[in-house]
């Protein structure tokens, strides 16, 4: 089977200037890049006139593993031109499982639509029929729960060894990375030494170390240092996830962070970012981490004294920022009409303060509530995107085309927003450079030499986009909008469809 993509401009993924030409695909791989007009015999032709032919986009930071079971068609990703998703980020992966109940209590992200019949990476992978490729990482929170539940303490030597053994087993089954989420319980209970021991094991297995660092606010630089030290000691490749400075008091801190990262010359490190000024996470991240120890948040809230203690901590904590935190999604029922409203708005409506409203909402929904937090400056987002070492990544989930609630627009628009808004409209970076940041750069971080690039022999994961029309349509107020301007997506030489992706390593 031969496919010829003709008449377009080719962005090969290296950042080189666009050149006219034909990309010829044979079977799963790119056979040749031909000058324009050169005749190609016996090939199915895709007319790319007026379009750019680029490598399929590689999303280094996705949470697709939690929603993929329900949305294998990956419409929200294909409409962005994404062909490979790296999952298992921020310390959470859906394997290995020894205690499903504690794992599911640990995060609101876990999709109830999965059957949860597996225990390890291979079992999870066997349940999938994704439309896009998946590269899987093992999460530290998940490992910790498998070894010691959600206890707020350091692991015993035996428990640490169990985590290391489970990590090695996942690596043997094809994991590409190990991730931490050091703001999330129980990952936040880990000492730097525990993390470093696991990073060293990950490095021995050849895995990337991806980290949602311990502090993205005033403690940003120290948190970067913790990640760098662990990678240096263990000899790991390091990926700083969603680099940013959160909270008004910390605006501008990304300049120092980038300067700091650029100075490190003895660690193989990189970072990624999404092109938005809001974050999105679970409402439980607003709580002090001790409130989540032992997986007993709901029990604690049922105890009046403990509930009062948590409320007091929330009132004392200036990180609550209730004006900026908007309810993104929660299950049907009470507060359903609060989706899209800020904590301040909901609290005023109910005549209580923001701390009380946080607890009421969590109690009403088994703590399974996600939020959007408007916490970054546009200048910082632009500064990070301008830096040549920043990869573009979504931090998003796979979404259907329509659904409930107010999910973060990054789920639908990350890649088109960088190509359209930041490259074409604002000229923050050139189009070939923007494409490099979402193709060869992330592929190289993963150690993939035959993806993220257009050259003979590379896997034919390809995206055909119209540079004049590429647009992210999803907004905070009206998020359920697929992006437009992506005209064809090929996986290994075939038009993308449910089941066309595979788990790659
Ligand atoms: Zn994260």
The set of bound ligands, ions and cofactors reads: zinc ion
Q: Give the termini separation.
A: 25 Å
Number of strands: 19
CATH architecture verdict of the domain at 57-277 and 376-403: Alpha-Beta Barrel
The percentage of residues in β strands lies in 15-25%
CA radius of gyration is 22 Å
Q: pLDDT under 50 segments (min length 5)? A: none
Looking at the structure, the CATH topology of the domain at 57-277 and 376-403 is TIM Barrel
The largest sheet, given as strand count, sense and whether it forms a barrel, is: 8 strands, mixed
What's the number of helices?
A: 16
Structure description:
With 505 residues, this protein is of the alpha/beta class. Among the domains are: 57-277 and 376-403, TIM Barrel; 288-372, no CATH class. Helices cover 31% and strands 19% of the residues. The chain has 16 helices and 19 strands. The chain has helices at 75-78, 100-106, 121-126, 140-148, 157-172, 192-204, 220-234, 253-263, 297-302, 304-316, 343-350, 354-364, 378-386, 410-425, 431-437, 440-446; strands at 2-10, 19-26, 29-34, 44-47, 52-55, 57-59, 82-87, 133-139, 177-181, 208-212, 237-240, 269-273, 278-282, 325-329, 370-374, 390-392, 462-465, 486-491, 494-495. Strands 1, 2, 3, 4, 5, 17, 18 and 19 form an 8-stranded mixed β-sheet that branches. Helix 8 links the parallel strand 11 (237-240) and strand 12 (269-273). The longest helix is centred in the N-terminal third of the chain and has 16 residues, at 157-172. The chain is globular, with a radius of gyration of 22 Å. It starts with a strand and ends in a 10-residue tail after the last strand. The site of zinc ion has 5 residues, from loops.
